[in-house]
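WARN retry 2 of 3 for item q-0093 after timeout on previous attempt; input resubmitted unchanged.
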Amino acid sequence: MATSTSSVGKFLRQLSIRKNTGNVKKKRLIPSRTQSLKMQFEFKDTEIPLKPCSVQQIRDYIVNDMLKEAYLNLLSLCLELQQQRAALGEGTCPMDLVSKETDIITLFETLRNKMADIVCSSSLPSSQNKELLMYVATIILEEEKRQMKPGGMPGWMEAWRDAVQDGVRDTLKKVPLDSREQNTSWLAVHLGLLGKTIVEDLKRVEAELLSSYPADFKVFETYVSCHHEAVGEHLKRLLEHVTEVKDYYALLEFIIHRYPSEKIMGSFSILREEQRGLKLAEDCLNKIKNSLCHRLKEDFTAALENIIKIEREEVWRIKKTPDRTDNRFLTSQIHTDISQLIASYADNLKNVDENLRNSVVCFSLEEINQFLRRFEKEFSQNTCSLLTSDLLDSCLWVEYHITYMNSLNLLKEHVLCYKESCSAQVEQLEKEVDGLTQRLSQTLIEHFKADIKPYINGMMTKKWLETDEDFNEVISRIESYSGHCKSMRNPSAQFFVNDVHNYVVKEYVSQLMMQKYSCKNTKKEDAAVKIKEQWNELNKLFEEMGSSFHWLYPVGYYLSDIIGMDNLKNIKDILNPLVSNYPDISKKHLSAILNFRGTGFGLEKQHVIKQFILLKKDAGNTNHEHSFFADMK
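OK item q-0093 returned
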């Protein structure tokens, strides 16, 4: 509450003084109060001493909290100085008057400082303090009126507010604050105590201080405003020590929800709703949000890396058998861990800041894309050795692929709930998941192909006609994969079954095109019977597996009928549906089938080829959604 020397000097010099000292004594030095001001906030003109006491005595009054005596004698001292100046008229001012003016300036400064101390310490209610505050308010009102005149000393009300602000700051500084080492919940505990202190302080203001000031001071509103400002400063200092996610959450929860709630500011019914919220500087609030966002991103990336580490150390390295859901689907915790982590971010930030929530969720979805690529590489490197070991390890290798295909498909389902707020990120993640599951599925398909290829190559030979050994090996491996498919979730399971079905029947039929064997005499009937029997078995097996490639089922029967037909003159009845359902069959393919049944280059074969060409011509360039023969050499 300091007063500048030049201001006070100007104030003293510019006051209008009547040269008639008698008139000066009779003049009201302090204008009367308005009728609305209570009498306890008034000093009477008659109370101003005609002769002021000494400067030291006035100083002692101030030091000993005797504000009324100090202020009235200070006014009397000002009056005495004015009278002495008036008596001298214009000219050089004697040194004793200069000294007296300096004393007055110093006394005003001392009085202001003392008043500031009283306001700051007004947290200790007492009848004496209440009286002192009344004198403080009266002096401020008197000086506020004086500042409206030429040379008036400005800033008394502002100085009072500064003192209130300092008092509030001191109150908040006394709130206990443990270190992070002392208490892991240091910030949450401190904010709880801070809220309690604010409520207690404002209740004291409401109960004890309102009556110590006139309504002009707007005491409660001022204290609330000062609390807003001091709390904002306090939180800004706390932010410098916050490093953990839970503490950023605690700060935002306090600022956005707890502070304006019924627990703190909302508990004061006299406050309007717009007065309850904490008006933090935008840069401070943004800093908290940005820091939280940065830490959440770091934590999420670290959590994804930890998932890979756990799979490597606790699953792949020790060859742990995957879990199953209800003894059916193979599963892992990957999708659950990732989904729950994102959901926790979304839920915790939902009532804090929608933009912040979306930013963190979108980042998380983007980071999963990078995770999937790292996971795929680690998985391949850490499990490839299983294929060079025994049969059990080979089965475990297959189960791992199915496990992660299942988990990834569930992850894709879980993130769909964020499509509205993060549509681009969800769509990109869906593509990444689909790509990885397809690669995992294709790896299984390639392994299956390599497994049955030697036995498929034994089809349509003399050995094949005499024994079912190779075919039974093919069936055994299909059945093995059929069991694996039961532990695979859709849509991967459907794609996988269809791919296996498509590969097996194409490879089976393609053996006819290789012309490794030609049936002689009655052998064609034996071959036709065997093809039909084996085709029945294949169809039954793939129907049980749930293949949706129904268009593949008839082709084997058509070929069996052609191979076993006694008289090829009636072949049109078979060629017609064959060409209709499989328009990509060519003359070369049909010729290979005829060669297999032992039909050489005679008229009979030419007759069949001619009918085939006519049928193809009548069919025209029919576009067909499926390709079967075109892939066969």
